[in-house]
Each structure stands twice: as structure tokens, then as C-alpha cells.
Design a protein that fits this description.
With 207 residues, the protein is an alpha+beta fold. The protein has 5 helices and 7 strands; from the N terminus they run αααββαβββββα. The protein has one domain: Chalcone isomerase. α1 packs across α4. The chain is globular. It starts with a helix and ends in a 24-residue tail after the last helix. The chain binds heme C. The site of heme C has 19 residues, from β1, β2, β3, β4 and β6.
């Protein structure tokens, strides 16, 4: 990651917030902006069906804000200082809400893509860059305790996992065994590793 990446994401956040604000009564209710939501106007989330099945927001790269990226070593191969890059994204309206309220609102969507990498000596140093998506993780904020009988919902979130080769197929079976233990260190921050997302500490723009 170059230092300019977070700044760029931040500008995108402002631009998107401006667009959403500028559209006024259009935002969120126009069918072609969020097709899944249009089918069920009262639905809790365009990414969640009536049974709590979660789908991957496939347009997150162009419509979400980049919150931050984690470079993960540890299982390092010789000559490869970073084993994977984890990019985290949220919708502009959820970012603005967090900046205002200090927490994500009901229905907030967070996507993390775990990217495979290559590393090499380039003219800037030893450089690691992303290649393909290995897996996607998704969390959807549920402050009302919906889907009590669904093993992918609990502790205030819906939890989901998709393999890079099949983005349509959710593969986690129970968040308590598949996700929860690794997120316990972040429990005080509503299960999120907030330290990686400096944009959330900014003041909301234009509010
Ligand atoms: C091996 C431990 C581990 C497991 C298992 C795990 N996570 Fe995480 N998760 C982390 C860590 C650590 C971070 C932040 C740093 C990173 O990505 O390396 C993170 C970050 C995330 C993020 C970005 C938002 C945040 O929490 O900061 C999402 C979304 C996420 N995880 C969802 C899931 C879901 C859904 C599951 C289960 C299907 C899951 N995770 C399983 C360790 C884990």
C-alpha cells in the first residue's frame, strides 16, 4: 500500500457522500441504484433475504469506501514478507453514520477481501502486491437480534464467507465456530478491528 491509497479512498468517500446528499429524495429508493432492495422495499438489507441468508455485495469495489488494508505476514515464505492483503470496505452512508455516532448503524455492511499476493524487489524496495481474491468475509450489523434461529447471526452481526472461485456461494456454517473466537480480541469495539480504519475517526463531511 502506498501512503496515498487511504487519502484516495477518503476522497471517494467525500465524493460519494456528495452524490448521495445531492440526489436527496432519490437516494436509496430508486430501483436501479439497489436492485435487490427494490424487490422488497421494507427489507432490512439488500444483501439479506427473509431467512437471513447473506449475499456478497459484488459491487463493493466501485460503490463502497475503502476503510483500510491489513498486510498479513506470519506464515511467511522466504522472500515473501507479506502472505496476504486484507482490504476492508463499507458503504459511504455507513461510514458517515459511524463518523457521526461512533458506531455502525443497523444494516451496515462490511466487506473484507483476502487477496493473494506476489512479492519482488522493485525500484522502490521489496514490494508486495495483490493478485486474485482468495476469500471474502462479510459482516452485516443487526442491532435488533433478527434471525435467532440462523447460526450465521449473533453478537449483533450477520457473518458470512465466500470463496474467490464462487462469490455466489456462502460457505460459513456457524459464526460461533467459524468466526467468533478470532474476533474476541475486538469485542470491546463491537467485534471490529477498528485500529485499521483511520477514516472512521474523521469528522463527517458536509453535516
Ligand atoms: C483466524 C482468525 C479469524 C477468523 C477465523 C475470522 N476472522 Fe475476521 N478478522 C480477523 C482479524 C485479525 C481481522 C483484522 C485484521 C486482518 O484482517 O488480518 C478480521 C477482520 C474482519 C473483517 C473486517 C472488519 C473487522 O472486523 O475489522 C470482517 C468483515 C471479518 N473479519 C469477518 C469475518 C467473518 C464473517 C468470519 C467468519 C466467517 C471471520 N471474520 C473469521 C480474524 C479472523
Amino acid at each position: 500500500m502506498t501512503p496515498s491509497r487511504p487519502r484516495y479512498a477518503y476522497l471517494v468517500a467525500i465524493a460519494l457522500a456528495a452524490v448521495v446528499g445531492g440526489l436527496g429524495h432519490w437516494s436509496g429508493s430508486v430501483p436501479w441504484t439497489r436492485p435487490a432492495a427494490a424487490a422488497e422495499p421494507d427489507a432490512f438489507s439488500p444483501y439479506v433475504d427473509a431467512k437471513g441468508n447473506i449475499s456478497l455485495p459484488t459491487d463493493y469495489k466501485t460503490t463502497f469506501v475503502h476503510l483500510g488494508t491489513f498486510a498479513v505476514a506470519g506464515k511467511t515464505k522466504v522472500g515473501a514478507p507479506v502472505d496476504s492483503l486484507h482490504g476492508v470496505y463499507a458503504r459511504p452512508e455507513d461510514v458517515t453514520a459511524f463518523q457521526r455516532d461512533g458506531k455502525f448503524p443497523d444494516g451496515a455492511v462490511i466487506v473484507k477481501d483476502v487477496l493473494k499476493v506476489k512479492s519482488d524487489a522493485l525500484t522502490t524496495g521489496t514490494v508486495t502486491w495483490a493478485t486474485d481474491v482468495d476469500v471474502w468475509f462479510v459482516m452485516i450489523k443487526d442491532s435488533k437480534g433478527r434471525f435467532k434461529d440462523n447460526d450465521l447471526w449473533g453478537d449483533g452481526w450477520g457473518w458470512a464467507l465466500y470463496q474467490g472461485k464462487d462469490p455466489k456461494k456462502q460457505v460459513a456454517t456457524d459464526y460461533k465456530t467459524d468466526c467468533r473466537a478470532c474476533h474476541v480480541p475486538a469485542k470491546a469495539d463491537d467485534w471490529l478491528y477498528l485500529r485499521g480504519y483511520p477514516v472512521l475517526k474523521e469528522k463527517p463531511k458536509g453535516k
